[in-house]
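Handout, page 2. Input:
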Amino acid sequence: MNCVLRLETLWKAKQLAGIKDFGIKALQINLQPTSSRVIPSCCATSGVKGNTRNVSRPDKRRYRGWKVIDGDHVHNGYLLAKQIHSFRWYPGANVVAGRRRTLTATCSGTIRFTKEIFIPGRFTKDATVAAKLPRGALLYKTFINIVPDKDVGRFRLVEQI
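Output:
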């Protein structure tokens, strides 16, 4: 809290102005000499504070999900899918999983979605899921693959090499 001493006499103001320890260079106060009391008065440092709870505000949009469909043409570094908690789409050929399981293209080409049979390891979490399924049931996983473009016009003659 910032407290300011309000002086009610010109005599006290002149006394304080002479003291160099307070760092006062020039103090001009036009007060009438009524008494020699010093009254402390406090000034507000900030205005009215608001409520800090934003209960009714909707959550920030995450923009999760796949960004391409089967048959789309993508370039190197293109974002294919965003997923947070677990893999829904797995990286296939020419696809890399980045931070938070974000799938990114590593080369230019055409997108292909494939479903492949998944055989879990013996002591994995997926093995407990597979044990609860009826005998003969198969687990499938969806992979996002990129079929690279053919290199057309990127050749050199043997004599130039």
